[in-house]
Design the sequence.
């Protein structure tokens, strides 16, 4: 604590005035520091608020972009599903048309032709057997051929 010279009527006014002036400078210095700290805090808070706001904006943009991409992917999957279904439908239609065209009556005609061919081959075999061939015996007996082998 500051000590003052005692004069007739109390402390020395000049020393007191100087001391008050010094105290005012110290107080002013503390107020300046206090204001600087307050301004720094306010600036930091404004910066933090801006960072948060920008972060929220970016998150919302990413979220919107992601949802857009997901919708596009979903639509692509649905398009592929439709294309596959159309392919399957076309394939099934083609099979049905083919199967209708290749009915049992067609198979009966094929089997009848095979039966006719077998009969012809048996008859030809008998005819060849009845003919005499000079030289080594190459004949095949019609009885040697199984009924359904030709």
Sequence:
């Amino acid at each position: 604590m500051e000590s003052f010279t005692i004069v007739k009527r109390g402390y020395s006014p000049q020393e007191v005035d100087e001391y008050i002036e010094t105290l005012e400078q110290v107080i002013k210095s503390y107020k300046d520091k206090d204001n600087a700290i307050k301004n720094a805090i306010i600036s930091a808070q404004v910066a933090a608020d801006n960072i948060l706001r920008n972060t929220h904006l970016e998150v919302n943009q990413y979220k919107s972009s992601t949802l857009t991409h997901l919708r596009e992917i979903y639509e692509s999957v649905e398009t592929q599903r439709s294309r596959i279904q159309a392919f399957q439908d076309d394939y099934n239609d083609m099979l049905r048309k083919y199967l209708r065209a290749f009915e049992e009556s067609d198979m009966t005609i094929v089997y009848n032709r095979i039966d006719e061919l077998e009969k012809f081959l048996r008859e030809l075999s008998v005819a060849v057997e009845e003919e005499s061939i000079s030289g080594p015996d190459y004949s095949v007996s019609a009885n040697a051929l199984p009924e359904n082998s030709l």
Q: What stands out?
A: The CA atoms of residues 30 and 36 lie 10 Å apart. The chain is about 75% helix and 5% strand. The beta strands are 6-7, 10-11.
